[in-house]
Amino acid sequence: MSTTRARIWPFFGGIRLPGHKSESLGKTIQAHSLPQQLILPLNQHIGLSATPAVKPGDKVFKGQLIASASSSVSAPIHAPTSGTIKAITQHPTLHPSGLNAPCIVLEPDTQEQWADTIKPNAHPLQIEPETLRKLIGSAGIVGLGGAAFPTRLKLETGIENNIDTLIINAAECEPYITCDNALILERAAHIIEGIQILLRALNISRCLIGIEDEMKPAIHTLKQALTLTDETDIRLVETPTRYPAGGEKQLVKTLTGKEIPANGLPSDIGVLCHNVGTCYAVYQAIRHGIPLISRIVTVAGPGLGKACNLEVLFGTPIKDLIQLCGGYVNDKTDLLIGGPMMGYPVNSDELPIIKSCNCILVGSRSTKTEQTVMPCIRCGECVDVCPAKILPQILYWHAQAKEFDRIQDYHLFDCIECGCCDYVCPSHIPLVQYFRFAKNEIWSMEKEKLKSDQARERHEFRNQRIEKQKQAIEERRRKKKAALENKPKNLADDPKKSAILAAIERVQRKKSVADVEPKNTSNLSNAQKRQIKETDERRKNNKSE
Amino acid sequence: MNVEKTTNLNNRFKPHKSVTAMMLVVLVTLVPGVASYLYFFGLGMILNIIVACITALAAEALILWWRKKPVVFYLKDCSALVTAVLLALCLPSLAPWWLTVIATLFAIVIAKHLYGGLGHNIFNPAMIGYVVIIISFPQIMSTQWLNPDATKAIDSYTAATPLDNIKTELDRGQTISEVTEASPTLLFGEFGAYSWEWVNLAFLLGGIALLYLRIIRWHIPLMMLGTIFLIAAVFHYYDSDNYLPPLFHLFSGGTILAAFYIATDPVTSPNTRLGHIYFGIGIGIYTYVIRTWGGYPDGIAFAVLLMNMKTPILDYVTQPRAFGHPKKRHTHITHKKDSQD
Ligand code: SF4
Ligand code: SF4
Fold first, then answer.
1. ipTM metric
2. What is the pTM of this model?
3. What is the tens place of the pLDDT at every residue in B44-76?
4. Nearest CB partner across the interface for B3, out of A367, A377, A430
5. Across the strands, what pairs with A91?
6. Whether A375 and B120 lie within 8 Å, measured CB to CB
7. Which ligand approaches the C-alpha of residue A382 most closely?
8. What is d(CA A272, CA A164) in angstroms, rounded to the nearest whole number?
């Protein structure tokens, strides 16, 4: 264990934000009572949806697998409590788009009966790394910092790239959010054990925990927990409190001095990042065999009775949490999922909590200042705060003009959508929205292009096929012809062939006759012929009239 | 796309500054400078300011109405007022009212709105207004300054600026010491140009306040003043009879005003900090060159406009290295490829 102030490499840009953390930090994490119904989307992570492993009417136990991973880029889902599967239907889910998605609806029976598949491990650190990774995968663990990337997959890429350092993200930099902080304060020892398990799963020993230097109580708690272990390679590093210190790229830069390459992954520079919440989930899964069925969610914001951290079963509707926190202050309220800087709004409080949801922010319409958008005055404030070191005002300019080629030259895709530029802009331009718009536009254009490329390929392929067929026919004809021409003298000798030849000739003669006379008028009776003639006459007269 | 109509998430929980507030702060910090102007050059200046402000607001309102933009909304940003005041501060204190009106109209109508209005203009509007009339009415521009000693009724009521005087004399083959002997009080003050040094000092005060309030950043003013000081020092050291001392350059004419208030106009200066540094150096060099060898006594306006023209290219070549990109300037390479294609 080492607690000396380690060297850091501060990142460029960023801003100091009012933290609003104390509001939700004072109280202990509260467990939430069982709701009437749990709604579990099949896709709560990055990657493919899980495949249901139950049918409506099935009785399930707490922690039982109810949907299995459909590929390596997917994560299984477990029953948060015991009960009956009511349905597998479309339901609105927590997503910026607000679209419906397939969900498993579970009605709790309040028995809280655990499945018999739950197996604790007394000595997690003696399990083989490969087995550990498998166990982590089958526990349905995904990154709980917000991205919800399947943890097992991340570990595997780490192994493939021979990473040497595990970085634990405890720098919860967005205002209001304190779920990780609360977790550290109450369960630091478990987090450390989770880290040890992850280190073993990765076959490495070096770990850096990045934490904002203003989170003093959490730092103290972690330090104490570290002294109780005999680890020497897990180091706590305090980073300056400056948003977005907890952004993956920024944190890695601060702790290691290395920049994750653009379009690259942390494993490209030998590190892997996990969130403290994920470490705790890993501890739960390996030590106690409990799959990921709940998480800590911060419920806070100016429009809320009392802010707090809740331990919530997945599938619980938002409104239940808000009720537990004293309900809304105003009746007209904005709901944000995530922090005030990077969160997205939702328009219903019926939506269920999913694995990636770390915070519910309740705004009140009265705190919202009406903003009018002015033209960009090129003041450069946004440039000074942009941690991606790009030029937001130039991106904005090109986004407005829809110059999507130029905007990529100015590194649109390096924008991490942190919202710093937005925050400082004196013209109140919603810059990030423009950038998201441009990114979406470019993605859909690329998809279109891909589609049309595929269509073109298909078309070309079809043309080729037709061409080939034609050639084949041509080839056969030529061969036949050649065969005929090559053996004219033998014809007389070969009665069979001469017979064929005669037949062909006959056909050809017939054909040429047919060419001269239209088929349908060849065998007409005289009366018919007369009729036709009359009709023709009539037509001629009509025309001349 | 109607991005502007959707609500801005980040703004929900935040207080922050606005364009209007920035412009108002700029106006307030001008107060000491304007006061010292009035003290030394008489009340004529306040008339100039009033005429310029009224003209600017009227012109802006009319054009906004004509362009079918929300008039009151845009007038509220106060940018037209800032332009008007800065322009008025560059005009001689006894300039006729119509001169002020013409200059202001050029600034607002041609330099600002023909380019698309706030945020879109390439050239500094106040400087365009100034240059148009210094080219059209050079006589008025160089002589209609109230003689700072007029109250003492020494000789004449109006005077040229010290910079102007010295330039004329130097052009006639006089040396600086001969000029000073001929009229000992009117040219040199304690450290800069007579009276003008105090006006400049007052503007410096306001400029420092702007820096402190982070309305402007140090790069442009420091680089511009530093460059002028350095070049002037070299030449003065080399030939003090023909080249004015560096402090005289800094504290005469509109040097300080331009450094803190005009060159720092965000719209017409580069976006990057490195760009700001080059921009400041460029203005410094041009100012010195035009003052010393050019046809006009004070070259700041031309210097600013010349550098305004270079703003896009400065923006382009001073792009920072984006996070996670290799040190080499890849963008430029790809750009070149693109343009060749
Ligand atoms: S902060 Fe806003 S007004 Fe200033 S340069 Fe950036 S986008 Fe333009
Ligand atoms: S949102 Fe994008 S452009 Fe704006 S500061 Fe963050 S990274 Fe830079």
1. 0.78
2. 0.77
3. 788 889 999 999 999 999 988 888 888 787 777
4. A430
5. A101
6. yes
7. 1
8. 8
